[in-house]
């Protein structure tokens, strides 16, 4: 799919992102590995789609009215909050975003820059009432006394998954003319993987759907054994789940899962930048590493697609900070070693 003419603001500009053939990854595997450039959405990430799906559904159900007072509340690692805040700005609504204080400074600063009311909370496990998701739900309940308010609830609001089924998955199929053998993607809410999986499987049940998981997340174990079990840790943000399966992911047609260590994720982040001119974040690097692994397992001649979730500039203080990386025992790219 491609843009055929002018569009209407933020809401009209989301989606129809380019599908990029990754030269290095393809040559390493003898396959064609393609990545959908979701960092080219107006808010800079794949989460712009979830924002439009959730807010569009809220309008359809009469919970919010464009250009009338309204408040959008969400707990997020950053990118969904950015998409929601920009989409809310474009429809005249206020946004209140609850973010764990451990998230990258760049995302927190950007949220404030675009006018979101940012509430930082300590990083707590999901079982703790102080977890950012629970804090955001309670805040939405409080603010609803002041006027129309929605809790976006990206993890369990199925409007997230459905927008990816209608748009992202359909675009991938069309852009590759149906020539796709596997799709791999990491999960935070599960909306992208589940929605794309449903779209692709409905067109060809033989397309292999593989969940890509960082260390420290239990979703790999869940796919492989049916149990949630996490080991290790990761510096990636916004992906993985240690203690729950989000509602968007339940029942998704997933065939397999792979685990990706931070070293492999970083190698792809730096290679994409240095060799292909693509600046991406950690989840994108993890997705490409997973696509390479899946392609090698399938053998030459196959086509594998994945997602470049967001851009690298949002992680300058972490992924591109030699001191931060050294403290984590991880390598910095040659051009940053000084």
TrEMBL record:
One of its GO terms (molecular function) is cysteine synthase activity. Its cofactor is pyridoxal 5'-phosphate. The keyword Nucleotide-binding does not apply. InterPro entries: Cys_Synth/Cystath_Beta-Synth, P-phosphate_BS, TrpB-like_PALP, TrpB-like_PALP_sf. It comes from the Bacteria. The keyword Transferase applies. CDD domains: CBS_like. Its EC number is 2.5.1.47. PANTHER family: CYSTATHIONINE BETA-SYNTHASE (PTHR10314). This is Cysteine synthase A. It comes from Roseomonas gilardii. The lineage of its organism: Bacteria, Pseudomonadati, Pseudomonadota, Alphaproteobacteria, Acetobacterales.
């Amino acid at each position: 799919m491609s843009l055929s003419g002018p569009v209407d603001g933020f809401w009209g500009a989301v989606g129809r992102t380019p599908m990029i053939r990754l030269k290095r990854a393809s040559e390493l595997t003898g396959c064609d590995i393609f990545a959908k450039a979701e960092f080219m959405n107006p808010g800079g990430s794949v989460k712009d789609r979830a924002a439009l799906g959730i807010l569009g559904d809220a309008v359809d159900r009469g919970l919010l009215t464009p250009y009338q007072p309204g408040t959008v509340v969400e707990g997020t690692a950053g990118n969904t909050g950015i998409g929601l805040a920009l989409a809310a700005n474009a429809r005249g609504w206020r946004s209140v975003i609850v973010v764990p204080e451990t998230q990258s400074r760049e995302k927190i600063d950007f949220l404030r820059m675009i006018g979101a009311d940012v509430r930082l909370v300590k990083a707590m496990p999901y079982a703790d009432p102080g977890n950012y998701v629970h804090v955001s739900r309670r805040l939405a309940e409080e603010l609803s006394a002041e006027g129309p308010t929605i809790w976006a609830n990206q993890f369990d609001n199925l409007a997230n998954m459905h927008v990816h089924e209608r748009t992202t998955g359909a675009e991938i199929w069309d852009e590759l003319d149906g020539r796709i053998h596997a799709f791999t993607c990491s999960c935070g809410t599960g909306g992208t993987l589940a929605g794309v999986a449903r779209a692709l499987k409905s067109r060809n049940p033989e397309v292999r759907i593989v969940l890509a998981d960082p260390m420290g997340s239990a979703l790999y174990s869940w796919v492989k054994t049916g149990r949630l079990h996490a080991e290790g840790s990761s510096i990636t943000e916004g992906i993985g789940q240690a203690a729950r399966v989000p509602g968007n992911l339940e029942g998704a047609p997933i065939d397999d899962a792979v685990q990706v260590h931070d070293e492999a994720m970083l190698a792809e982040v730096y290679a994409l930048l240095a060799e292909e001119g693509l600046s991406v974040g950690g989840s994108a690097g993890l997705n490409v590493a997973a696509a390479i692994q899946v392609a090698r397992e399938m053998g030459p001649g196959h086509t594998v697609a994945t997602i470049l979730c967001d851009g690298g500039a949002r992680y300058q203080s972490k992924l591109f900070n030699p001191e931060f990386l050294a403290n984590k025992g991880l390598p910095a790219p040659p051009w940053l070693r000084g």
